[in-house]
Amino acid sequence: MKLLRRPVEILRSDSRALVVLTVLIFGALLLGMGTGTLFPGLELPTLVSGGVSGDLVHTMITNPWFFGTVILLINLFVAAVGGILLPSLIVPFLGVPAIALYMFNVGVSIAPSGSTAATVLIPHSLTLIIELTAYVLVMFGAYQLGRGWIRPGYLGESSRRRAYVAGLRRLAWLALPTIVLLVIGAYYEAFSVVYLLPGMLGG
Fold this sequence. Notes:
mainly alpha
């Protein structure tokens, strides 16, 4: 039970910050979707781009387990670790605007600018809720790490060094529910793309 109780205690320690971060990342996604809807031809640079072979694409859309694993690795190591955690370990709070910008770009790319895109969003909306909730957990841990380093008393410590270590411990506790959510989101997305969407799109 401690694996569940401790992350909940951490999240409750600053509910106001948790709400602000949640609004920030979901707001960035919705703003991106709104921008993409207004400007359908808009293309922004993304962290993951071309270079995927046709054989790999075929393997992914016919093997949901492989597809889900690819999605999980991207979401975990590109977005959560590379986009939030690592920047925040170098510069306090840097991962927060970085992931917000990333999700804005995602919003632009998935904007419902046509009937097909709107249909795709029906099952994909659940994926987005799950994945963004996972990112919020990492953002919250990064926020507490940064704020604790600036003001050690925020984490109940007397020095920046002790506060930094305490912040890292909190990040570690939040890692488990983050990974669980990303696993659920990745494999749901893969199975919905392989099995659910073709029927919805009349394929």
